[in-house]
Amino acid sequence: MTTTYEPSNPLIVQSDHTVLVEVSSPRYEEARNALVRFAELVKSPEHIHTYRLTPLSIWNACAAGISTDEITGALCRFSKYQVPEHILVEVGDFASRYGRLRLVLGLGGLVLSADKKTLAEEIAHNKLAIGLLSDRLSDTDFLIKPADRGKIKQALIKIGFPAEDLAGYVKGEQAHFSVREVSLSGERFSFRPYQKEAAEIFYAGGSEYGGAGVIVLPCGAGKTIVGISCMQQLQTSTLILTTNVTAIRQWKAELLDKTTLIEENVGEYSGACKEIKKITIATYQIMTYRPDKEGEFPHLTLFDDHNWGLIIYDEVHMLPAPVFQVTAGLQARRRLGLTATLVREDGKEDDVFALIGPKKVDVPWKELEHQGWIAAAKCCEIRLPLPEDLQMPYAVADKRKKFRISSENPAKHKIVQHIMAFHQNKQILLIGMYIDQLKELADQLDIPLITGSTSQIKRDELYKDFKEGKITMLAVSKVANFAVDLPDASVAIQISGTFGSRQEEAQRLGRILRPKSGDNRAHFYSLVTRDTVEQDFALKRQLFLCEQGYEYNIKDADSFMMRPI
Fold first, then answer.
1. Rounded distance, CA 509 to CA 156, Å?
2. Nearest alpha-carbon partner for 427 in 468, 366, 386, 383
3. How many Å from the N-terminal Cα to the C-terminal Cα in the chain?
4. Which of 480, 528, 513 is nearest to 382 (CA)?
5. How far apart are CA 417 and CA 431, in angstroms?
6. What integer is the mean pLDDT of 392-410?
7. How confident is the model over 305-355, as pLDDT tens digits?
8. Pick among 1.10.3720.10, 3.40.50.300, 1.20.1050.10, 3.90.220.20: CATH of 193-363
9. What is the pTM of this model?
């Protein structure tokens, strides 16, 4: 392959597997769209963004059908200088490792099969795998206990050779239903093209090549609907795990509205209700409840209390450790992960890959924005100074206290009022981490507030009033980060966040991305105290926005007050 390296190209591929991207290049957007399919964003200051090529990023690309030639071709096509030869070789090496080990059903049961005897020997002598290999069947094949199917996949990905699982799945109890052409709410309904395509990729015609994996879609793009499409293809009993009771109710409402399932078919399994039906929706919280720190998790038996044919992990990046452990033993059941971002704050992305499945679909946010399926978002960070009376307490505080002082900067109140006045005819969400800060602002502005202590009945009532336009402003803590359907919200003001959480940034932006009538635009504001640790963490949070191609404007508070847009 002959490549002409142009000085105007945006990429500089470095020998340490990092890729620098010049934001000012005319080919920046084209290059970024190619790069995010197989590289991880590390940092994104104003002018140069840094990505990293990792084995996991390459394996996810392979699982999504991206070839080695496509990856190396993109690196060379957009690079300013010659790509180091060893990088091209190592990308090929990473990619070649995917699928060299396979889990299949043989005459003796579950078999781990290597493509070469040398690889089989390497696995046989690795301490992570030794205890999981039952019997040596041949030079390349090992018998695996069915109960160890998940554990061996976890071990192999850590060794550096992820196994392709082709051992198939149990059918589960049948659960027949169809999708309505007109929903019960009276609206015509059909799957959007990308929703239908994502479900078909996951289903893979019912073969062993489908049935386990993660679908990454923007908030507001209808991940629930994709889940319903997968359920329709499989027609099997399904356990849906999600983040909170509000999400349970929203899943149930969508299922009853858009399918022929009836109330008796759909159960809620939460702190308040313990129904097990053909379609059961539970929270991660109830699954990980235990009476004391040393006790058992009594509700994890739900995984085995019914013959599930499909388990859906909503917001899979939030999957708690105890559920990971149980999922290792559920590899014979189909598993679908749904998320807006695969970034986990605990770094367990490899466990998601091994136990839920690789990334099957990743639809770029900006692509759906251009097609009108989600709102076009304008993101703005407003930086303001720390008041003089707080500068000394900040100076002598430890890092955690510094973050709280800067996050609760009272000077933010005036900016919030200014934004709300500017967008006075819009549906506005005020989002924060610290309850005292939210309470003070909610009292000042006379707007309702939802926190973790708000009863479920009151939450449902306030969400309903907001959706119906009876109230136009709502203050919410991080309990509203996930699975809250507020389609008309078009302005979000983030007054404080969870340190440098990229996943939280994704969820909060997602609250305002559902398509709107009219100009279909949304505004996302982050208020940050200048020259503090809050600004440092805000830079990490920006990674997600840059990853998705959003323009991220930074404005000084004084200039913003004079000219907000």
1. 36
2. 468
3. 47
4. 528
5. 14
6. 94
7. 889 999 999 988 878 878 878 888 889 999 999 988 777 767 788 888 899
8. 3.40.50.300
9. 0.82
